[in-house]
Design brief:
There is one protein chain. A 4-stranded antiparallel sheet has the order 6-9-10-11, with no helix packed on it. It has a 4-stranded mixed sheet with strand order 8-7-12-13. The chain is 12% helix and 39% strand. The chain is mainly beta and 144 residues long. The termini are far apart. The protein has 2 domains: 54 residues, no CATH class; 84 residues, no CATH class. The mean pLDDT is 86. It is elongated. It contains 2 helices and 13 strands, in the order βββββαββββββββα.
Length: 144
């Protein structure tokens, strides 16, 4: 995976040693820049908006067990699921499902996961579509 600095130079994410706290280049208090330290000793500057791209760059992939599904769409007509083919571990430690349409199915946010072997208390994981619907109904009933 790669990231771009403010001068549009391309760098490998695995060359990152550290990332600074936000700072302002204009002194106006708008802390929107970060310094990235690289293994070769260089430092480059990125815009804070690019930080999430770096944090969510996949550093490792693990094959998913067959039978795990991601809920990729839900509306009044029902839900759409897609098989999770792998799990991606990001630089920030998050674990994201990978479907045939990409990391997190090409979406932002957290996808609900259907896994028949899931722990009933695991956040975002459900043993069946019916368990997912029951959890959604329970959550809606808790809203005052």
């Amino acid at each position: 995976m790669f990231f771009f600095d403010l001068e549009l130079n391309r760098w490998k994410t695995d060359a990152i040693v550290g990332i600074s706290r936000p700072f302002s280049s204009t002194g106006d208090g708008n802390k929107n820049l970060r310094t990235v330290e690289l293994k070769n000793g260089k430092t480059v500057t990125i815009h804070e908006a690019n930080l999430r791209d770096i944090e969510q760059a996949i550093s490792h992939m693990i094959p998913a067990r067959p039978g795990i599904l991601a809920i990729t769409h839900e509306d009044e007509e029902g839900i759409e699921t897609k098989p999770v083919i792998a799990w991606g571990i990001t630089l920030d430690g998050s674990i994201l499902p990978i479907t045939r349409d990409g990391i997190n199915d090409g979406m932002t946010g957290t996808l609900p996961i259907i896994d028949p072997d899931a722990d009933k208390n695991a956040s975002g994981f459900y043993q069946s579509v019916d368990a997912y619907h029951a959890a959604q109904a329970n959550a809606e009933s808790q809203i005052p």
